[in-house]
Design a protein that fits this description.
alpha+beta, nine-stranded mixed β-sheet, two-stranded antiparallel ribbon, 13 strands, 22% helix, globular
Amino acid sequence: SPGVIDGLSGENVRQAIAAYESAKGLPVDGLLDAQVFSSLLVGDIAPALTDYVISEKDVAGPFVPDMPTDLTAMSKLPKLAYSGPAELLSETFHTTPAVLEALNPGVDLTRAGTTIIVPAVGAARLAAPVTRIVVDKAERAVRAYAADGRLLAFYPASIGSEDRPAPEGSMTVRAVAPNPTYTFDPKRLTFGSSKTKVTIPAGPNSPVGLVWIDLSKDTFGIHGADDPKAIGKTFSHGCVRLTNWDAQQLAAAVKAGVRVDFTG
């Protein structure tokens, strides 16, 4: 995964190509050369773009056009929903509103029945169950492996910070929580503006996104995020952030007891 599909070449793309090269036994340089491109075409000859008809559900909401940044203000909302159809459709197709607008100039993304051009994203589910996860702090990446040692997935990630570094060593997956609420307790956490304990409602724009993979160290997990374009570019508060769609794909393939190794 390159994280968000933004049409730009950058570090996330380089990492994704390098991971593909390593998995395929190709020279690893992170460059989309002729050898890599030929290999990609052998595995997938489907078009990179496809048509999609906007549905009534896509535009029905509820939406939150002006999302607060203060945790206390967030806690008063019924749901941390998308800002509007453009953001919902962007996440559905792993891209950004800017890319959707570029692909569909002048098209009203709020009108059901409208046909738009979108990225043809890959399968939502991995090819096999995940039995081991490696969190590479130096590379800001997460790798998921099958029981036979095969690399199933590679995801760019935001992992810890100087103030609150990610843990070291090994732990295990304890549970998976889809659509999680998030409890901020200033007695246990050192970030955030709230002076009191608050519970943040679920939603794609929650600080922990659409899924939480709970780890065997209290307050730490692998989870989604409210800003997909920031994944791999910014730091986290100790946890491991993925895009919502990458976190959901990983969560669907793990179960309690899966080993998680922190390296780098």
